[in-house]
Amino acid sequence: MSADPELLRTAFTHPSFGYEHDGSRGNERLEFLGDAVIDLVVAHLLFDAHPDWTEGELTRARRALVNNKNLAGYARDMALGRFVRLGRGERRAGGADRERLLGNLFEAVVGALYLDGGLEAATAFLRETCGADLSAEGELPEHDPKTRFQEWSVATRKVFPDYAVISDSEVENDEERFVVEVSIAGERFGRAAGRTKREAERRAAMEALERAAAS
């Protein structure tokens, strides 16, 4: 990630830190800008990736990809929470791992990248971060392997599946950096590797679905 250091400093400053130290609003304005940029860029990338999808399918996919929960997942994959500056109260409350805070942080980072490098920089970052979800083998997000395996697990076992990171090579851009296992009540159903935790989880879910279909 490369951008103006001062912009990134602001992006990683939670409002609680600003209130306690200099009275600023922290990354709120960058969050606002990043939210709009993400909507535009993701819409464009989906439009290019899925020429056969209808307007309704593109809209549903965009909504699924840009919701706060999903953006927080991307922020966790990049360990962005490790670098955010928080006020004392927010830090004591575990703010660095709170879903809403991480989603907002991701938006602020995109806002900073856009101000520094324009749409080209923001697009490159989002393509790198969520490219696998944008293509997703032509599937709508609500039909992805994790969602389908969760539906199967709840319907047949009455519990949600558990995903666990088994190993992390800590090598950036390693295509098999993360190894993830998915299990149900302690029974392993799938194991796979990926460049990000999300990618590894998705592949593990695909393997789990194959096992479920054969059972």
Give a verbal description of the structure.
By secondary structure, the protein is mainly alpha-helical. 61% of the residues lie in helices and 10% in strands. It contains nine helices and three strands; from the N terminus they run ααααααααβββα. Helix 3 (28-49) packs parallel to helix 7 and helix 8 (145-157) packs across helix 9 (197-214). The protein starts with a helix and ends with a helix.
Helix-strand layout with pairing:
Blueprint lengths: L4 H7 L3 H7 L6 H22 L5 H12 L1 H10 L10 H5 L6 H37 L9 H13 L4 E7 L9 E7 L2 E8 L2 H18 L1
Antiparallel strand pairs: 1-2, 2-3
Concise synopsis of the structure shown:
The protein has 215 residues and is mostly helical. It contains nine helices and three strands. The model has no long low-confidence stretch (mean pLDDT 87).
Tally of DSSP β-strands: 3
* CATH-level-4 superfamily name of the largest domain: Ribonuclease III domain
Shape: globular
By helix and strand content, what is the structural category? mainly alpha
Q: What is the CATH third-level topology name of the largest domain? A: Ribonuclease iii, N-terminal Endonuclease Domain, Chain A
- How many whole angstroms does the radius of gyration measure? 18 Å
Can you tell me the CATH architecture of the largest domain? Orthogonal Bundle
Give the helices and strands as they follow along the chain.
HHHHHHHHEEEH
Beta-strand residue percentage: 5-15%
